[in-house]
Specification:
The chain is α+β, with helices and mostly antiparallel strands. It is built from four helices and three strands, in the order ββααβαα. It is globular.
Length: 111
């Protein structure tokens, strides 16, 4: 379970095997709130990429950024395999961090 100011790499998706987003943060809960509320314009808001399906915690932000860059350079299939290995049902892991489950049609992709 992440704590405040815990460096973290995370993967969001629009739906199982859907559009993926990889990010890094020092406060996963706050960052998830921003993504889910559409508080910041950008890719995740535009394409409704709000479901947390994978995250990794690190001791330093330097290590988290290094891992983020590594994951971003991976082939899509490798990313899908990583998620499926750790989270075979593609559950929204944000629910375990205190967020409400997202309905399948809560947010629609598009401008």
């Amino acid at each position: 379970m992440p704590t405040e100011k815990q460096p973290c790499v995370y993967i969001l998706t629009s739906k199982p095997f859907g559009t993926l987003y990889i990010g890094v943060t020092s406060d996963l809960v706050a960052r998830l709130w921003q993504h889910r509320e559409g508080a910041v314009d950008g890719f995740t808001k535009r394409y409704a990429v709000h479901r947390l399906v994978h995250f990794e915690l690190f001791d330093t932000m330097e290590l988290a950024i290094k891992r983020e860059k590594q994951l971003k350079n991976w082939h899509r299939d490798w990313k899908l395999n990583l998620i499926t290995r750790e989270n075979p049902d593609w559950r929204d892991l944000a629910v375990g961090l205190g967020f409400e489950p997202m309905s399948s049609d809560a947010r629609q992709a598009g401008p």
